[in-house]
UniProtKB/TrEMBL annotation:
Keyword annotations: Hydrolase, Lipid degradation, Lipid metabolism, Signal
Species classification: Eukaryota, Viridiplantae, Streptophyta, Embryophyta, Tracheophyta
GO biological process, one term: lipid catabolic process
Annotated source species: Durio zibethinus
Gene Ontology molecular functions: hydrolase activity, acting on ester bonds
Stated family: Belongs to the 'GDSL' lipolytic enzyme family.
PANTHER family for the chain: GDSL ESTERASE_LIPASE, OSJNBB0059K02.9 PROTEIN
Stored InterPro entries: GDSL (IPR001087), SGNH_hydro_sf (IPR036514), SGNH_plant_lipase-like (IPR035669)
Stretches that traverse the bilayer: none
Encoding gene per record: LOC111311738
Protein name per its UniProtKB record: GDSL esterase/lipase At5g03610 isoform X1
Signal peptide: 1-28
Gene3D superfamilies per record: SGNH hydrolase
Amino acid sequence: MDIQNLLFSLFCFFFISLFLGHQQVVEGSRVSPFAFRPKKLFVFGDSYADTGNNRKDLASSWKFPYGITFPGKPAGRFSDGRVLTDYIAGYLGIKTPIPYRWRKELAGRLKYGLNFAYGGTGVFDTTVAEPNMTTQIDFLEQLLNDSVYTKRGLKTSVALVSLAGNDYSTYIARNGSAAGFPAFIGSVVNQLTVNLKRIHDLGVRKIAVSALQPLGCLPQSTARFSFEQCNGTENTLVDLHNQLLLQAVNNLNKETNSTSFFVLDIYNAFWNVFNQKEEHQVSTPTFENPFEPCCVGVSAGFSCGSVDEHGEKKYTLCSNPKSKFFWDTVHPTQEGWQAVYSTPALQNSLKQLW
């Protein structure tokens, strides 16, 4: 990205911000937990929430050493263990919903909801051949039409909607211009808003959508800085996405005269963890270097789980995943997700479920 295009992108961001003003999430008055008891969790989105939908021949999540912490072998999660979905289900007091692809084999678990998330996907088509978010919602609608679920049943359910940046990495991969980035962010949030409204119209009572994490702090971005600092330009664009998302959620709550929609503050939850060493917090683990991943390819073209034509591994693995916030160049470890879940930012977000 040359400096002229960079300055233009930043100008666009601050220009839009000027007209949006400072947005706050609309919060309804806290009611008794007994007023709403979620019985099902439906999950839409990408690898931050996927628990095994991706095809085994395409996804690294089915390769060793993924899953070594939980369940002890690769099982489709993009981590060494549990991911965001598992912690949200635990908060709700229900079992983690099974992946959509296993709905027939594990039909007895459908009463807890379903996970429609596929790693690598976005609101638009991305570089992976997996269902985008619109198609994922189509799956739920078809199950309603087939009477697997009912609208009445969905009124005691929660939806988790994860958007972790695949639309933006696809935009870059397809040589989208720096000048066009702010407008593309607007189109992503607009489509996400359509998806949220549609999930609500199907009958889901509460819908939690994740804010975008600080993409500039993922190891894939911090590697060029020896894992010592974040990419500020990327995080500025993330700020725009999150600001537009907050405005969209506010508008949806006004349009539906409800507090059905709320944002999971993943962005500040990540920062809560990153800053713990400086703040001397002790409520969650402190990671010595939070930007350095546990599992990484030995060179360009290789990633965590890669092997060559002789079956020789082409990645390095840290001695203790619990000591690392990031598992690979994009995804947190189980310990990382536990830390994120335990932060004030995420705990305060989750209170809006009630």
